[in-house]
Design brief:
nine-stranded mixed β-sheet, GNAT_dom, GNAT family N-acetyltransferase, Aminopeptidase, Acyl_CoA_acyltransferase, 33% helix, 9 strands, 34% strand
Length: 174
Amino acid sequence: MAIVHDDQSFTTERLHVNTACYEQVISQQPSLLPRIVELLRPAVVEALPPYFQDINSNDDALQWLNTVCAESQLFTVELKEQALPIGFLFVHKQSEGLVHIGYLLGEAYWQQGFASELLSGFIAWAKQHTPYRCLVAGLDENNQASKRLLLKLGFSLKASSEANTQIYHYNIRP
């Protein structure tokens, strides 16, 4: 369950999730760039779009950050006790009330319940602080861990679209 801070961030038991934008990172958090390089390793991004691939330098990270922030609301996911980014949450408005969400966690943080905690917290936050009606998540059909998580949280499989991609929906409001 999320402990809501404001309309731009939330916390869970172990995580602090905060919006980040390109300008803010450049001026206030330049140390995030090498962390992006660390987190976006091949195993983490293998099923993600091409602009997530081959992030090997701070310049690559800066270009990735610019691209992501231009198309989505970006949230950093940090461990509360360390203020250490362990991943990202992406929210892209598709239409009024319909948003596409995505997330990634560094490989060292897999299978520890962080993804479940992050998405549960986001859903609780979205219910209180947004007009979102439906969350849409697309994932590679081979990503069994994310598939199980989405179903556990109440998402339902709606369609398969492009090759190897499954689309899941979570209705926040009727």
